[in-house]
Specification:
By secondary structure, the chain is an alpha/beta fold. The protein contains 8 helices and 10 strands.
Length: about 290
């Protein structure tokens, strides 16, 4: 295995460990916020060791998805972790549901638990930036300003999760041999980002305070001066997962400033600020979060 392949395998295994051991973003969703596996536990170690020595199965699964995107990559990681790490059987994924020959949605994952129960899981990995100092869900905004935590939760609870109980889903479920779904679960993972000058913030019903920071591009010079010894590593999609210290190349603060000034990002960029504590950091355009005039 060449260095590039080894680096890629290490990155995917790090992402797998991250998604399997992170709590859910919110405490109040069906299925609860408990991580799928505890950090350092024997089942996690067995899963990671199996994946290190037999990565082809995970890569095949990723290859069957649009794994250059964060969402499909996350779904593939969770499916792999449930099957290989927890003994689930995958019955179907991205199961299209139609009504009068029109697709009305899809079931992310239908699995059979080790106890024999059929479970419908809706999955999402999302990153949200706190926009205006308020903590309710509608004040946490996606980096591209097209999504909010409130909208995502509403869609998952009122459309995606109940879809498997609708009459239109029965034909799709029958194709995979399912006549009844016993359990429904939302798995919403990700990270929350506060404005970089603010203290850590706790979204309503969040399991943890904000893990990252965000700033406008025009503030990068000030940030670099505050963290003079920091190194900065850019996170390319789909690796918008932690662990945040998992990166190879890095820039000094001065190099980061030059990079962003010479090539102002048209879209938000995710970086790791590598100091004593590695922190994920979004840089967004100077118009982000500011209403157009």
């Amino acid at each position: 295995m060449d260095a590039t392949s080894e680096q890629l395998r290490t990155a995917w295994i790090g992402a797998l460990e991250w998604v399997m051991t992170r709590p859910g973003l919110l405490v109040s969703l069906p299925g609860g916020p408990k991580p799928l596996l505890p950090i350092g536990g024997p089942r996690l170690q067995s899963l990671l060791e199996h994946t290190r020595t037999n990565p082809a199965g995970l890569f095949d699964l990723l290859g069957g998805r649009r794994s250059h995107k964060v969402g499909p990559a996350f779904e593939a990681l969770i499916q792999w972790g449930l099957v290989v790490g927890l003994g689930y059987e995958c019955l179907g994924w991205d199961l299209q549901v139609q009504k009068e020959k029109r697709t009305i949605g899809a079931l992310d994952l239908v699995v059979r638990s080790p106890e024999g129960k059929v479970e419908h899981w809706e999955l999402a990995y999302k990153l949200y930036l706190q926009a205006d100092g308020k903590l309710a869900w509608d004040h946490w905004v996606g980096p591209n300003e097209r999504d909010r935590l409130s909208l995502k939760v509403e869609k998952m609870l009122t459309h995606q999760l109940p879809l498997s109980s609708r009459p239109e889903a029965q034909e799709a479920l029958a194709r995979i041999g399912v006549t009844q779904v016993d359990t429904h679960r939302v798995l919403l993972l990700g990270a929350l980002f506060r404005p970089w000058k603010e203290q850590a913030m706790m979204a309503v019903d969040a399991t943890e305070p904000s893990q990252g920071c965000w700033a406008h591009v025009s503030e990068v010079q000030e940030i670099a001066s505050i963290y003079p010894r920091s190194r900065w590593s850019k996170r390319e999609k789909p690796f918008w997962f932690g662990p945040w210290n998992q990166a190879s190349d890095s820039l000094s603060g001065a190099e980061l400033c030059r990079s962003l000034q010479e090539n102002p990002p048209g879209r938000p960029q995710l970086w790791t600020c590598r100091t004593e504590v590695d922190t994920p950091f979004f840089f967004v355009s100077d118009t982000w979060g500011r209403p157009s005039e």
